[in-house]
Amino acid sequence: MLDYLTFTNLALFAIALLLFYIWLTPKYKNLPPGPMGVPFLGCLPFMETLAERTFTKWSKKYGPIITVQLGDHRTVILNSYEAIEEAFIKKGEKFNGRFKTYFTEFASEGLGMVFIDGEKWKEHRKFGTRALAGAGMYGKTIEQRVLEEAENICHVIRSKNEEPFILEVYMLESSCALANVINGITIRERCDEEGNENLLKLCHVKIENIKAINNFPNRFRYNYFAHHTRMSQVIIIAALFDNLIEQHQQQHDRLHPRDLIDLYLNQMKDFSVSQLYFKITIYKKTTKDLFAAGTETSSSTIRWALFYLIVNPDIQDKVHKEIDDVIETGHNGVVRYDTKLPYTKAVLQETYRIRTATPLGVPRRNTEDVTLMGYFIPKNTQIIPNLWWVHNDPEYWNEPDVFKPERHLDEEGNLIMSNRVIPFSIGARHCLGENLARTEIFLFLVSILQKFTVLPNPEDPNPPLECSPGIVNSPHKYPLIMKER
Ligand code: HEM
């Protein structure tokens, strides 16, 4: 007779076999191929630190679209420009959802701008596009705001007296440049003004949160962790926004909206008090999302560009020469976004390519069953575009690891905007802040290079060029030197 222990062991073994069999049996026919993985964890244990490289390795074996099980998330990786174009442009309507995970729900509570979808997303996208374009907003243009902040940055840089310092553009000591640009648009407030200590604290907490996510060893494992800073953040935000909204309601003038809150209040005239409260809750999330999406991404791109100019002094010389010829001589020192600086713009285009700020974009979700490149993708699959590989595929980019701005110029020196440089992704759900980001990154960089030469730190002459594993690919901290020209 079997004793009790043997019977239990056999039963457990049979259950394990059954689970293994269920796991092995494909639930859908004709899914894109991909690696097997292991029960429960799927492919997570086999991911290297930079997930985009692992996906690329698998893609070379299985093809341009692959299925990868990440924990309990069925995921399809789009590993070529053609696959991303077919999904996000040609079949965009079906791929405009956002994939929901414990982390996204936790971070967004189903509200805001980045993680919502359906009709709610369409309504907010329209509103956000109008607001970021400055439509109907009185006061300064986006360009004026950015140039003002760029001027502040230059003051702070000058105060470093050509000593090594760590440039973190969004939090550059007293000048919170990028945070001020986005906060100026959404809540008409600067972080570094007296009385705004809570806003400054909030910006710090938010940025620390982004960094905390970035510090996880692999950007897919962050899904399973919560942020310890969340409670303090919630309390600060609640108090800050209640105060701000009350002030805006008191001073509200329909015909002269000054910022995103005023635009929002304009839209809310017909709502009941409870609807108003609900809308304001959504609004707070929207403002937070814009802040989170719009600071570390742009800041990292500016820092990558400066690092590449340090290691390529000949390229920096050409940028300086172009700025001197065009702006100093032709435009009395005044730069605008449309100023013709093709070489400098090519340097930026190359930075977007070689150090893609969000190498795997922001995961999408297909809202219906769909066929893509001949494969079946069941509704509600996580869809990840490998933007990094589009930017580094040697079939299209000769020596992709080499920083060569010239590859973005034609024979007459005009800028070529290749559709294979897509840091902001593509389709109806591409980055909402693309124009703002392009404007601020260009104007900050030109304003700095107009006045300074960026030099390596003599004690450590090689700026770190390794990519980081976070959602945002931020450069490591490096003390550089800025010398007045
Ligand atoms: C270098 C700078 C930036 C890069 C590389 C970048 C990249 C991206 C990418 C790849 C996405 C995902 C798009 C998709 O799903 O197809 C995205 C979404 C988004 N970005 Fe950016 N971004 C940058 C700066 C900004 C700025 C300055 C803002 C604005 C304040 C912003 C606001 C957003 C928002 C709101 C979304 C979500 C859009 C939606 O779901 O409809 N981003 N960004």
UniProtKB/TrEMBL annotation:
Membrane keyword on record: yes
Pfam family, one: p450
GO molecular function: heme binding; iron ion binding; oxidoreductase activity, acting on paired donors, with incorporation or reduction of molecular oxygen, reduced flavin or flavoprotein as one donor, and incorporation of one atom of oxygen; steroid hydroxylase activity
Transmembrane intervals: 6-24
One GO CC annotation: cytoplasm
Cofactor(s) of this protein: heme
BP-aspect Gene Ontology terms: organic acid metabolic process; steroid metabolic process; xenobiotic metabolic process
Alphabetical keyword list: Heme, Iron, Membrane, Metal-binding, Monooxygenase, Oxidoreductase, Transmembrane, Transmembrane helix
Presence of the UniProt keyword Iron in the record: yes
Entry binding sites for heme: C431
Top-level taxon of the source organism: Eukaryota
Gene3D superfamilies for this protein: Cytochrome P450 (1.10.630.10)
Similarity comment text for this entry: Belongs to the cytochrome P450 family.
Name of this protein: Uncharacterized protein
Species: Ciona intestinalis (Transparent sea squirt)
